[in-house]
Each structure stands twice: as structure tokens, then as C-alpha cells.
Amino acid sequence: MAIFDMLPVKFSLFTSSILNTSTVVAITVFVTLLCACIVIGHLLEENRWANESITALLLGLVSGGVVLLVSGGKSSRILVFNEELFFIYLLPPIIFNAGFQVKKKQFFKNFSTILLFGIIGTIISFCLISLGAFLLFKRLGLTSLGIKDYLAVHIEHMKIVFAAAIGAIFSATDSVCTLQVLNQEETPFLYSVVFGEGVVNDATSIVLFNAVQSLDFSDIDVFTALKLLGTFLYLFCTSTALGITVGLLSAFGIKTLYFGRHSTDREVAIMMLMAYLSYMVAELLSLSGILTVFFCGIVMSHYTWHNVTESSRVTTKHSFATISFIAETFIFLYVGMDAVDIDQWKESSASAGTSLAVSSILFALVLIGRAAFVYPLANISNCIKRRDGDKIELRKQVTIWWAGLMRGAVTIALSYNQFSSSGTSSSTVYPLLITSTIIVVLFSTVVCGSVTQPLINAVMLRNAKPTTSDGTDFASLDDLRLLFLENGGSNDASGNQEAPRSSGFRLLMRYPTHTVHYLWRKFDDRFMRPVFGGRGFVPVVPGSPTGAADDQTS
Amino acid sequence: MAIFDMLPVKFSLFTSSILNTSTVVAITVFVTLLCACIVIGHLLEENRWANESITALLLGLVSGGVVLLVSGGKSSRILVFNEELFFIYLLPPIIFNAGFQVKKKQFFKNFSTILLFGIIGTIISFCLISLGAFLLFKRLGLTSLGIKDYLAVHIEHMKIVFAAAIGAIFSATDSVCTLQVLNQEETPFLYSVVFGEGVVNDATSIVLFNAVQSLDFSDIDVFTALKLLGTFLYLFCTSTALGITVGLLSAFGIKTLYFGRHSTDREVAIMMLMAYLSYMVAELLSLSGILTVFFCGIVMSHYTWHNVTESSRVTTKHSFATISFIAETFIFLYVGMDAVDIDQWKESSASAGTSLAVSSILFALVLIGRAAFVYPLANISNCIKRRDGDKIELRKQVTIWWAGLMRGAVTIALSYNQFSSSGTSSSTVYPLLITSTIIVVLFSTVVCGSVTQPLINAVMLRNAKPTTSDGTDFASLDDLRLLFLENGGSNDASGNQEAPRSSGFRLLMRYPTHTVHYLWRKFDDRFMRPVFGGRGFVPVVPGSPTGAADDQTS
């Protein structure tokens, strides 16, 4: 056999030997654990304290521990935490599905509140957490943490940059966690506000962080603040517009080409691919991919979904939910396994006490930062809104505050990206910050994750009647329509949107949300649905594909 | 700003800057091209000469060319061909879906023919192609191709190893190509034989290649041949058993736990994950993952699929097909783009003439190798089978021969793995073999891909009536059942399978396939379905989840 060893032919062919064994082992372990999570999560369904995310996290911790023991305390890493995996493959389907399944009426009804929380709230939280972290670093003395080789002025600047990074990382609400903890069916208002805040948040965070990078903190004036606001508006509008454009394009394409005639699979495939494309294009253009793919999901569920065959509708609805579900479970499993990684704990030379202290302070900052914007902003929102049903009562404010506290995989990924030791400096402050982040994430996921649902049950459902409130909305919408009809201002065939004149304007002032909704419905029915299709829309052209599909499937 | 540049903080946070731009660009390009393929494929649906795979291949070639021009002739690689991507992520869903959607009755009816072609056929083809390649290398003179730094005895051995590698790579039928070219609805017999051969092939190829690695060619005797046969049987049986076990486990788990009570998504998720798990475990145990996942798909469609809710059934059926469809299109796109890769053409110092000559000879060898086993084996199969309807006529033999000629991504992946220049030697024979493989793949995909469907229409459909033949089968099966009932040997409640005694044995000899099918159905109804569920099976226990689900959905 010695002869063969010398030959320059690699003796590896066919799958069994082509694949890297460690990859195969890692995938096998993860898939097995995912199956276990699903089964355990199903069995614990009735248990209100547990849910899939906590199960996955704990299972990840346990299996990380087992791997650690098996490898003799050397390494618990089967798969190295990879930001690309997270941001390219796991996050987009989750956010897209959230947009696809979101209750659109509820979401847009609360849109002003969502924007208020997502923009102003994030800025308040960012400032408070950054300030807190800055004071913390001053107290700890960054120099004692290993960075001695810089001038005093640099250290001062570093503290600011570190503090701002911490502020940006921890002020962002984790939308993936929100999805796990809140139930859209039971608490639609809470879900739309907290999750919506998390989506809008993404754009705010990008702007804030870019600002931290490029601004000179000694020279901030009103002009700079206005410029930042402009950047945010640009980012928000372009991201949203991109998502809407891709969504409409898919609706128009599917309606025109009528893939369903030949194959259901093509319809489903093109919906999946275009949704993913919207995220990737947004990333390519340095926009907020999360915002884009979220709005793409909303548009697709409003138009595209109604243009496909019945079986495609069932398939897309459930397969998007399934993919998102697998991705969410995977993320929590991943975070759990990663937390046990012995290397990063070893690297952090700070004592366990310091780690715990830093993470306690960080979590306290998150608590305070969130409280500092939820209560004031909710009251501002209450002042603007006239109707009692729209007001955010104190108990709702408490749940909004609590439900947004969870910090999860997004926080971990950002923290790794910012503080991983592959940087230029061998500073020991990085590992400390990473381990503290992990502690905060574990604590908030387990505690907030298990307490939120019981808290909501205790505070909200006991004396609230959300369905009645929704019922009132419908009734008042009908009233509005009657009002409009009486005024006769909107049923003319001019096709121009000047219809709601003086009386319309008065209505807009009195019931802004409902009026906007009514106007949008009119616009949608007259201009959008004829082109892009949509629920119950019978096309004008007889024998059109959409009509035929409706006939077939009804 | 200079101060900031010196700070050891990496200024990159939030998705837009975390992601590697080249990855984002590559994914965006691929997703866009996939969408284009689907749209073009849809528009060309009526065209019998074109199909999605050829569209994807040509689109890949064109976009590879565009990238080449844009990059100034430097590189056409956006994504480097990655065997792991292919074998871990793209191949399993395709093969699983093929098993999931395969017409089981047709498949098992032809099982003996499939095994004959997949085992004996592959060995014959392997021997012929290896021999041809060996003579080719002798003729070309391997020494002239750059390998001068070895002793004569080594060169002789190398020729054998090279020839065997070529034989193993090119004797394997590409099951992905078969799926693209053949239509299960139109030509069920052809599809089941050629595709089934491709699946069984995988196990044969592993055995053959391992044999090439470890055998001393100067010392082959009957004992060695028997040992190889034993290895193959072990591999075939364990792979199949693993697939069946995982499939049954999923059926039992879903029937017992009844996920659908809480969530459709859990059912779909667990089906997807367990199917994938079967492939990964097989790879982990060095078995044939393709065989395993194929049989897992068959078992899942027979049992598991019937245990889930109606919406899960629609979702799984279409989402598996969609994922497989996307993966197939992606593979052809990938092969097309990869073929234009300028680097590998530059590396191959051999002239275009030599490349073309080598690839012509290789393709000729594939043609001859396939002809050499299809016609003899089909005639042997005809001798065994008694009934005229089961015989493989000459025109069927021609289509079997032709439809299995296509060589695609599997061939490319194996060729890269074997001949990529990352090996120890800087021999120029490697690039030559890679470029020749690419030429063979492009030629066979375009020519065979476009000619097969018209050929089938011309040869098969004009004077054949496959549906009538299927009808005859059903009738004769009913006759058989009557015969069994008359003999009274099978309706006793003993639960023992000794029922078909003397008369049963006579029947088994006369109609082996039908008898086996009948016995299997009886066994299935009595033992398997009560435990694992299945179509139309009403469970004995009243109020059982499966029954409730049927009630809900019927």
C-alpha cells in the first residue's frame, strides 16, 4: 500500500468522504436538538411558564455542557457563532414571516405610537444607557482593564465610543424575542406596539451607530441633530419603499404571468425568492434589511398572496411560518450552546464577581432606559389621542415596558461583532463585555421569557376586553363611511384624491387613524387592487387569470 | 478623526456593515438569476425543446460571461463551487422530494429491474469506462501531461487509479438530471427505472470507489469479488433500513404526540427536520445518504403524511417540491456559471483540441458503457418476466439508454473533489480532466436535456398505451385477491404470514411482483398501519388523534 500513499491522487470520492466530518456532526447534533425542542415544546404547550425559546435555550446550555464534559473541558463549540449565518440566513425569514402574518389593521392603527417608541424611545434609551455605561467605565477605570498603552485623551475617547456601542447594542429591542413571548391573537395591541418598535428600531440603531462613528462629541449642535433626523428619514423611507416595491413587483408578476396555471411550486418559489431578494438588496444598498423585508411581507400578504392558487396560499402561509419557527428555535439553541463556550470565559480574566456586577448594571440600565421612554411617551401619545379606547392605560404601559426588556440573539451577534478578540488590541475589556452580554441575554431570556405571559394574563386579560374594543373600531368605521357618503365627497368618478374636503378634513382631525384607513381602502380598491390583485377583488377584464383562479378554488 | 482611527474599536456594527459585501452580492445575483430562470422557464413551458435546467445552465453561462467581461477577463467566479454546499444543502432535499413524490407502486413493481441496472449495470459501465480511460491515458502518454517526477511503476499505478476514478465518476447516473428530463406522469416506467437506477447507483459507486482505493489490482480473485458484494449488500441494507427507521419514527411520533392539535408548523417542521436528519446520520455512519433519504421519503409519504392535518399535507407536498425545485435550478445555474470560470481553463495548459478530444472520448465511453449494460440486462430481465406487459421492448430500451446519459452537477462535484489542484502535485492532468468533465456535462445536459423529451414523444407515446397496462395490473391484482380468497389461506386471524401455502407459492412463482405486493398490503394493513397510521386507516381506538384529524378534515 506504500505505493498508493505516494501517489498524488487524493483518495476521497463520493459523499461519505467528501464531507467534513465535523460539519456533519455539528449539523446532526443541531437537527436532533431542534427535533427535541419541538417535541418538548409541544409537551409543555399547556405550561404557561415555559415556551419553545426557553426550552431551546436550556437545551442548548445542557448540550453545550455535555460537549464540554465529553471534550474534557476543552471546548463546547460545535458550531462557532457566525454573524453571517445569523444575519443572512436566520433573521430574514423570521422578520419576513412576522410581516406576512402581522394583523395589518392593528399594526397601522398603532403606527404613530410605534414610530414614537421606535425613534424617540430608542434615542432616549440609547442616551441613558450610554451615559450609564460611561459612568460605569469611569468607576471601573478602563485602565485597570488592560488598556494601558494609550494616552489619556485616547482613553477618554475610548470610553465614549465603548459607552456608545453599549448604548446602541442594548437599546435595540430584540424583535425575535418579542415574537416568542407575545401572542398576536391574545394581545394584538401589545404585540403590534412592541414588535413594531423592534422593527423600526433597526433603522434608528443604524443611524445612531453611524453617528457614533463619525461624530465629534465635543461639537454637537442643532444642525447635527437635524442632519441625523434627515438621515433617519432617508433610511426609513427608502427601506420601506424598497420593501413595498419588491412586494408589488411580485404581486404584479404573479398576477400577469399566472404561474399557477402550470405549477404551484413556481408560485411558492418566486414568493420565497423575491422576499429574500428584498432583504439582500437592502443590505447591498446599506439600508435597513429588517424594515425592507418586513414591509415586503406586509405587501405580499395583502396583494401577492391573493393572486396565487388555493394550494399555494396554504403552502406559503404554513411554510413561511415553519421556516421562521425553525430559525427562531435554532437561534435560541445556538445562543444556549454558545454561552457555555469555555474559551470566552477563560479569556475574560476579570473575576466572576466583576462579570456579574457589570451585567447587573447593564441590565439595570436596560430596565431604566426602557422605563424612561415608555411611560412619558405613552402619556404623550394619550394626550394626542382623543378617544378613550385608543389610550394606553398604566397597566398596558407596564406590559409594554416589561415585554420589550428581553435581549437575545441580535444583542449577542452585535456584541460579538463589536467586541470579539479578533480586533487589533488584546484588551481584556472585550471578553468582559462579551461575557456580561451573555449573562444579560441568558437572564433576560429566561426571566422575562417565563414571566411575561403570566404577567400579561394577570395584568391585561383579567379586566380588559380587546375584542370589544376591536368591535367598536369596526362600528365606528362604518359610521365614518356613512358620514363620507352623506357628504357625497368621495363617490365621484374623478379618480382624484381631493374628495374629503372641508368635512373630510374635520373628520381627519377627529378620527385621524380611521380616516386614513378609510382613504387608503378607497385608494386601494380603485387603483392598487386592479393592478396588483388582492382579496376578493374581481378583475375588470373577464376571463383574467386571477378571476379564473378564484373560480377554480372557490 | 485621526484619533478614532487609532482606537482599537472596530467601527462596524449593525447588519449593513457586518455582512461581507461579496457574499451579499453573490446571493443577490443568484437569487435574481433564480427568479429569472423561473419566469423564463414558465414562459417556455409550452416549448418541448427547452426546460428549466437548460434555461438555468444557459443563463448561468451568460451571466458568468458577463461577470467575466465586467471583471476585465480576470474572474467569472461569484461563488466558488463548493462540494459541501452541494452535498449538504442542495442534494438531500432533491432526493428526499423524489422519494416523497415517487409513485410507489410503479417503483416497487420495477424494483428487480432497478436493482439489476443499478448494481450489475453500474459495474459493467464502470469496468468499460475505466478500461477505456486507461487505454486513453496510455495513448496520450500520462508522462507528457506533466507527471515526470515519478518512477515508471508509479506511473503505471497512477494510470489505473486515474482510470478507475474516471470510471467511478462517469458511470454514476445523475439522478438530479433524470428528474429534470423525465416526467413521472407521462412515462412512469421510464422514470422509475432510470431514476431508481440513479439512487441505487449511489451505494454501488461508494463500494466501487472504496474498492479502487484499497484493492491491489494484481491480485483479484473470486473471494475479493464476494467480499465486495458483501460490502455492497451491507451498505444497501443498512442505508435502506436507516431511512425506513427514521421514516417510521416520524410517523409514530407524529401519530402519538399529535402535534397538529397545537400547531401545523410543528408538524411540518418535524417532518423536514427528520428527513434531513436521516441524510446526515447516514453520512455520519459513512452509508449512502442518497439511498437513506430516498427511502425515508417513501416511508414518510406512505405513513407520516397521512397522520398530519390537511393543511400540513398541502404544505409539505408543495413546500418539499418547491425546495427541491429551487435546489435543482440553483445547481444548473451554478454549473453554468462555474463552466465559464477562466482560472480553470487557464490552468489547463493542454490545447483546446486536446480538451475536446478527451471529452469526446469520455462521452463516447459513457455512451458505450451505458449501451453495454442496458440492452443485455433488459433482455435478461425479459427472460425472467413471463407476462408480456412487463417486458422491456426495444424502444423502451433505447429510451432507458438515452435518458440515463445526462451527466450533471454530481459529476462536476465529484470531478472537482478528485482532480482539484489543491492536491499535492502540480500535475497538469488535473485541470485537463476538470475542463473535459465540464465540456461533457455541458454537452450532455444541453443535448440530452433537449432531445430526450422529443425522443420519448416520438418513440414511446406514439404506439404505447402505458395507462392501459396499468389498468391491466389492477385487474390482475383483483384476480389474485379472488384466487387467494378462494384458497381461503389468507383471511384467518392468526396474524402469521404463512398463509399463502402451496397455492400461494404457485402464485408467487407465476406473478411474483403482484403476490409480493398483495402480501405486503395485507401485512401493512394488519401490522404497520395500526401503529404508524396511513391512508384511509381508521384506528381501532376510538377518539384517537388520527381519527379526529380525519373527521375534521374530511
Automatic annotation (TrEMBL), chains A, B:
Residues 45-457 form the Cation/H+ exchanger transmembrane domain. Keywords: Ion transport, Membrane, Potassium, Potassium transport, Sodium, Sodium transport, Transmembrane, Transmembrane helix, Transport. The keyword Membrane applies. The chain crosses the membrane at residues 20-44, 56-73, 85-102, 114-137, 157-177, 189-212, 232-254, 318-337, 357-378, 399-417, 429-452. PANTHER family: SODIUM/HYDROGEN EXCHANGER, SODIUM_HYDROGEN EXCHANGER. The lineage of its organism: Eukaryota, Viridiplantae, Streptophyta, Embryophyta, Tracheophyta. One of its GO terms (biological process) is regulation of intracellular pH. Pfam families: Na_H_Exchanger. It is a multi-pass membrane protein. It is found in: Membrane. One of its GO terms (cellular component) is plasma membrane. This is Cation/H+ exchanger transmembrane domain-containing protein. It catalyses: K(+)(in) + H(+)(out) = K(+)(out) + H(+)(in); Na(+)(in) + H(+)(out) = Na(+)(out) + H(+)(in). GO terms for molecular function: potassium:proton antiporter activity; sodium:proton antiporter activity. It comes from the Eukaryota.
